[in-house]
Amino acid sequence: MSKLWGGRFQKQTDKLVEDFHSSIGFDQRLYLEDIQGSIAHAKMLGVQNIISIDEANTLINGLKELQEEIQAGQVKFDPAAEDIHMNIETLLTAKVGEVGKKLHTGRSRNDQVALDIKLYLQKETKNLQKLLLNLQKNILKIASENLTTIMPSYTHLQKAQPITLAHHIMAYFAMFQRDLSRFADCVKRANTCPLGSGALATTTFPLDRQMVASELGFADVTHNSLDGVSDRDHIVEFQATAAIVMMHFSRLCEEIILWSSDEFGFITLDDAYSTGSSIMPQKKNPDVAELIRGKTGRVYGNLLGILTTLKSLPLAYNKDMQEDKESFFDTIDTLAGCLLTITPMLATMRINKDKMLAGAQGGFTNATDVADYLAKKGLPFREAHHVVGKIVFYCLEHKIAIDKMTLEQFQKFSPIFGEDIYSSIDLQTCVNKRILPGGPAPVAVEKSIASGEKWLSDYRHRNI
Fold first, then answer.
1. Which of 31, 176, 258, 266 is least enclosed, having the fewest CB within 10 Å?
2. Which residues, at least 6 apart from 119, have a Cβ–Cβ distance to it below 8 Å?
3. Strand 150-155 to strand 158-164: parallel, antiparallel, or no bridges (unpaired)?
């Protein structure tokens, strides 16, 4: 076929170059955004008397028909037309005749693609936000049902202090809360319309850029035409946010993998979100969690890829920027896939509360509370810490837990100990006394849950 840009060329593009050059294989998923942008552009051309109102209506009606045909699977895109923009224009011209060639008046593929990506990013980010909000709702449900489910916390993967599962899972709520805020910021900064930037220097046609921006739901137009066609910050920001989300997924999945092992036994994953072994019949593997953990590297790679592509590009548009889309689309698909599986995996797992409690009862998780007990009785905390260190060593030698020591044994280390030491270091007491905001006491976590529910409601109202 004759290229739409082929007027100054005397030879056809080499077939190898044509295949290498074509992006329709992946950018066809931008067809809806391309048509939406073209409809707004055609409408504006008519209002501005750049083309007649009748011509504008012909273009708009033709584009709407074309959209329906694509959605019905009746259209086959042509690789020879290179990209989605030229495919749409070629198909439109075949449908409405010569007037189709007027659609590109005052417009370049450079500002078209910048527009399409921004529209697509906003749409897909909102979808991801909805999926992440659903995950957050499930986390709040798990927390609400496990306010008194005692478990050990860890530093260095060594037992630290007793907390509750509600407190632990709410840490991930906080992480995803920040991720949702990052997505909202990303959409906010992508909310400027580049159409009208032209190839890089706008155009002499009297376009109404604000009208087009308003038609497409943008808050404003871009304020520099060079930046308008060459900016891909929004893709970088999206990829960075997605990478942070995946990092949080990976941390959560690592704990799910550990907790589902026989050594921990804190949870049992539902059969629907586990797999078996081809040789070992007893195996029940946490493959969903492992695969999400593995896909984190894929999303990291996509972020590094776009940063590397953009790092030394001169203004304005360069063909290198065609490489912005495949990794962008892959990150969207990967993140959506992970969200669609991690949410029901968490919702269907069984919490083994007795195992969690048993885990907290070992490893001297109440040792800090023994030191706090002595400090509250007047012993400087650093001295109290030293005393309790000796107690722990004694218990290790005699293979007993701190709360199984007799009062006489306690008083060998300090005469300050009284009968109240036992109630002070009971695991339930250790948890319930930590009532500071953000702490593990049920009363504190209940406030965090209530605050989280309100935040989700407000966020959905503001951003979705």
1. 258
2. 33, 36, 37, 216
3. antiparallel
pLDDT band at 91 (very low <50, low <70, confident <90, very high): very high
Terminal Cα-to-Cα distance of the chain (whole angstroms): 43
pLDDT in tens, 12-33: 666 665 655 578 999 999 999 9
SS3 309: helix
Q: What is the pLDDT of residues 101-129, one digit of tens each?
A: 999 999 999 999 999 999 999 999 999 99
- For residue 40, whether the previous peptide bond is cis, meaning omega lies within 30 degrees of 0, is no
**Cβ neighbours of residue 349 closer than 8 Å, sequence gap 6 or more:** 256, 260, 267, 268, 269, 270, 273
Per-residue exposure over 255-294, b if at least 16 CB sit within 10 Å of its own CB, e if not: bbbbbbeeebebbbbeeebbeeeeeeeeeeebebbeebbe
Mean pLDDT, residues 31-55: 98
C-beta separation of 99 from 311 below 8 A? no
The rounded distance, in Å, linking the Cα atoms of 438 and 326 is 41
pLDDT score of 20: 58
Backbone angles phi, psi at 322, to 5 degrees: -60, -25
Q: What is the mean pLDDT of residues 120-146?
A: 98
Distance CA 464, CA 461 (A): 6
Question: DSSP class of residue 100?
Answer: G
Strands 192-193 and 220-221: parallel
Neighbouring-strand partners of residue 180: none
Residues taking part in catalysis: 156, 277
CA distance 64 to 462: 30
Task: Count CB neighbours of 211 within 10 A.
Answer: 17
Report the amino acid identity of residue 52: S
pTM over the 0.85 mark: yes
Nearest to 91 by CA among 109, 104, 77, 105: 77
pLDDT in tens, 67-85: 999 999 999 999 988 899 9
> Per DSSP, what are the bridge partners of residue 158?
155
Please say if the pLDDT value at position 9 is more than 90: no
* Closest by Cα among 76, 46, 73, 50 to 60: 46
Contacts 24+ apart (CB under 8 A), 448-455: 448/143, 448/170, 448/173, 449/140, 449/143, 449/144, 449/166, 449/170, 452/136, 452/140, 452/170, 452/173, 452/177, 453/140, 455/177
